[in-house]
Amino acid sequence: MKHLISVYDLTLEDINEIFSTAERLKRQLKEGVEHKILKNKTLGMIFTKSSTRTRVSFEVGMYQLGGYPLFLSSNDIQLGRGETIYDTAQVLSRYLDGIMIRTFDHSDVEDLAKYGNIPIINGLTDLMHPCQILTDLFTVYEHKGDLKGLKLAYVGDGNNIANSLLHGCAKVGMDISVASPKGYECDKNIVAEAQKDAEVSGSKIVLTEDPYVAVKDADVIYTDTWVSMGQEAEKAERIKIFMPYQVNNDLYSKAKEDAVFLHCLPAYRDYEVTSDIIDGSQSLVFDEAENRLHVQKAIMVKLME
Ligand code: CP
Ligand code: NVA
Description:
The protein is an alpha/beta fold and 305 residues long. It folds into 2 domains: 3-129 and 289-304, Rossmann fold, CATH 3.40.50.1370; 132-284, 3-Layer(aba) Sandwich (Rossmann fold). It contains 12 helices and 9 strands. A 5-stranded parallel β-sheet has the order 7-6-5-8-9. A 4-stranded parallel β-sheet has the order 2-1-3-4, with helices on both faces. 49% of the residues are buried. The structure holds phosphoric acid mono(formamide)ester (CP) and norvaline. Norvaline binds next to helix 6.
């Protein structure tokens, strides 16, 4: 594992190793044990989209590992004024030990990895959000003790989160049902990749338009915003289309009684999820947000130690 661009590229062993490192680093942090594994290493963090969790968790994580994080907004670096990915990759590879990038085009992340010679971490593209999904699976594992055989239901937009959930669940042997309206389904290539992994892991993949079909007997219910970054102009139309996909008490009651709720955040309460669900006792959203820190530290250790 040289980079983290897509969960599909990882082996089950990679994922297990990330989880066990994350578990150890989380425990040590709470015990006050220092773990400066990346002492004197540097991580460039390129952002062409907004962020709260990704930025803060990577920056604090790198600090806790003894390294130095650099926040590089695309408004400030020459990439934002048209310098090529090729030149940026060449130059930054001479200064840094790793790059985390959040951007629009997935191919920009792949090109950064292709043209540079340091580890590249995908901090979200329009197509995928692998750091988030590894964290989500880790969070479920913490709460349920195992992943294999559980069922996750994703309800809403077939976006970057849904795509990476397909990759992640298929890899670890969780069943996944995705309910999204016509025209807003998951990426076809990603569905095909997930199906390949599902054949090996035994996970069952269901794609449906009906949220009630998706959530039936689910152990985990997951939703995300209906309006991702870059889609702001479509907001009014999307809210109309997605309203039947709201995660509310009625929908939730069709899942298993102990079903937990996940949302990558930021959440738009009373759109994709009602307040009583996201603020309810079965919601893990803040554990999930916290775990970004621990899981991404494990990812950086694996790629940059
Ligand atoms: N979930 C997530 O990636 O949040 P941010 O956009 O705040 O980084
Ligand atoms: N689907 C959302 C995820 C935010 C973390 C977006 O891309 O804006």
